[in-house]
TrEMBL record:
It comes from the Eukaryota. The gene is LOC100901095. It comes from Galendromus occidentalis. This is Solute carrier family 35 member E1 homolog. It is a multi-pass membrane protein. InterPro entries: EmrE-like, Sugar_P_trans_dom, TPT_transporter.
Length: 371
């Protein structure tokens, strides 16, 4: 049986999703093990940034992508520097949250991303959402509150770190879309530049802050076995790999479809961490996590419906007087496209939505890669 182009592309997306979910779940579990045995989140962050900077170089070379970026200093300061700060801060606070609280709870808190995105989009861009979008935020907030109240291993620092990471990440994505829209920056080049600059900028902080702590805690570092060191570097490579897959998927998918895949990834991470790490949970805790993730799925559905209404096709009807009247079709007729000879044929609207990447403008944006 011959597989169509749409079928091949769909199969490729499914396989990429499976790889993405597997890498991300393993990355989070290994990261938790590393931070438990080696409680230095700043050092782990530097390993992650270094891994991305090192491993992305050969990828750029194979793809024939120039690693440098032609931009004057004011543009660097206005466009790139805030993204570098955001990249470092979100990575560091993510590791702090992973260190202080269970993986499942940290990712439940990160499910509040839509809530902060809606608020920041309104404050910064002045964009309002539909009623369905606002209503979808209720189960998200309710679920996170229930999960927080019932979390057995609750830690305030872990909660604040996860919330801070989520807020800055939402702000970072909005800022990227606002500033970088007209700058033709390849997504992998952007990843390479941000990791490299974040590593260089914050290397002095690591030297002055973590190096003395590592020297003072010689008893701890002395008992850090070879396995933990190996896991630390495996964790760095997996972080690079999940960033690479996520950037690739965002470049292939529409932002809304990517958000749905990202929400599903969070479900896999929570489930896998509970299975592998066996951290204690209650029925109410699981209910809170499930409610928050369900709210994220509702949010994506509401955004998808709003997008479809906005993108309904326009038809021009010629009256007897020769006037052209434009109208949008909101029923089943919207799924029909007129051919040149006046006949109609079905449009594959689902395929066009799932794989539409807005004329490749997604490559300008920093994707929603939030480990």
């Amino acid at each position: 049986m011959k597989i169509t182009r749409q079928g091949r592309t769909g199969l490729k997306i499914v396989l990429l999703c499976c790889v993405w979910y597997s890498i991300s779940s393993t990355n989070n579990v290994i990261g938790k093990i590393v931070l438990t045995n080696f409680p230095f989140p700043l050092s782990v962050t530097m390993v992650h940034l270094g891994s991305i900077a090192i491993y992305s170089g050969p990828v750029l070379a194979v793809g024939g992508i120039r690693p440098s970026l032609d931009m004057d200093w004011p543009s660097w300061a206005r466009c790139i520097l805030p993204l570098v700060l955001g990249k470092f801060f979100t990575s560091l606070t993510s590791h702090v949250s992973l260190w202080k609280v269970p993986v499942s709870y940290a990712h439940t808190v990160k499910a509040t991303m839509p809530f902060f995105t809606v608020i920041l989009t309104k404050l910064i861009l002045g964009q309002s959402q539909t009623l369905a979008v606002y209503c979808s935020l209720i189960p998200i907030i309710s679920g996170v509150i229930i999960a927080t109240v019932t979390e057995i291993s609750f830690d305030m620092v872990g909660l604040l770190a996860a919330l801070s990471s989520t807020i800055v990440f939402a702000l970072q994505n909005i800022y990227t879309k606002k500033v970088m829209h007209d700058r033709q920056v390849h997504h992998l080049r952007l990843l390479h530049i941000l990791a490299r600059l974040a590593l260089l900028c914050f290397l002095p902080i690591w030297i002055f802050y973590d190096t003395p702590r590592l020297l003072r805690n010689r008893e701890l570092t002395k008992h850090t076995d070879l396995l933990t060191v190996i896991l630390l570097f495996i964790d760095g490579f997996l972080n690079f790999a999940q960033n690479l897959v996520a950037f690739t998927m965002l470049n292939m998918l529409s932002p809304l479809t990517y958000s749905v895949c990202n929400a599903t990834k969070r479900i896999c991470i929570i489930s896998f961490s509970l299975f592998m790490l066996h951290n204690p949970v209650t029925a109410a805790n699981v209910f809170g996590m499930s409610l928050a993730i369900f709210g994220v799925l509702l949010y994506n559905k509401a955004k998808l419906d709003a997008h479809r209404r906005k993108e309904l096709p326009t038809y021009h009807t010629v009256t007897a007087q020769g006037d052209s009247i434009a109208s949008k079709v909101s029923d089943a007729k919207s799924r029909l496209a007129k051919t040149a000879n006046g006949f109609t044929k079905p449009n594959n609207i689902l395929f066009e939505h799932v794989f539409s990447n807005n004329n490749n403008n997604n490559s300008h944006y920093l994707p929603l890669v939030h480990s």
